[in-house]
């Protein structure tokens, strides 16, 4: 199950970025995952929930943007969205293509709440 390895890396990145930004609690995370990655969004969500326990991301909302596969035909130059996994140019029928999108796998953004600043309530403060 390669989704768990992906989520383990994701949690490492999130906790490092949150700590650097002095974020105490992560409330939402947005991922971009290209279809060519072959990842199951349901398994990503389940693993995220498990790995988030006891971390600043516990209870965070996870949004996943699935990126379609877009290719450019090397024969005629047509740019097209690949239906399913069939790399066949709709213009010339060629199957020699370069992918433009569909390999993405990254944290697009996350939101959180910062630690409250210490307040000096002494009479001199």
UniProtKB/TrEMBL annotation:
UniProt keywords, alphabetically: Metal-binding, Nickel, Zinc
Residues annotated for Ni(2+) binding in this entry: 2
GO aspect biological process, one term: protein maturation
Pfam families cross-referenced by the UniProt entry: HypA (PF01155)
Domain of life: Bacteria
Ligand binding (Zn(2+)): 73, 76, 89, 92
GO MF annotation terms: nickel cation binding; zinc ion binding
InterPro entries: Hydgase_Ni_incorp_HypA/HybF_CS (IPR020538), HypA/HybF (IPR000688)
Database matches in PANTHER family: HYDROGENASE MATURATION FACTOR HYPA (PTHR34535:SF3)
Function: Involved in the maturation of [NiFe] hydrogenases. Required for nickel insertion into the metal center of the hydrogenase.
Family under the similarity heading: Belongs to the HypA/HybF family.
Protein name in the entry: Hydrogenase maturation factor HypA
Organism: Siculibacillus lacustris
């Amino acid at each position: 199950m390669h989704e768990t390895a992906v989520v383990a890396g994701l949690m490492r990145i999130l906790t490092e970025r949150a700590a650097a930004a002095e974020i105490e609690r992560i409330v939402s995370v947005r991922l971009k995952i290209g279809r060519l990655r072959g990842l199951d969004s349901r398994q990503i969500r389940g693993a995220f929930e498990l790995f988030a326990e006891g971390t600043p991301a516990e209870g965070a909302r996870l949004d996943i943007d699935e990126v379609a596969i877009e290719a450019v035909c090397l024969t005629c130059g047509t740019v097209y969205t690949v239906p399913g996994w069939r790399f066949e140019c709709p213009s010339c029928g060629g199957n020699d293509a370069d992918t433009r999108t569909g390999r993405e796998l990254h944290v697009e953004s996350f939101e959180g709440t910062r630690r409250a600043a210490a307040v000096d309530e002494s009479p001199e403060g």
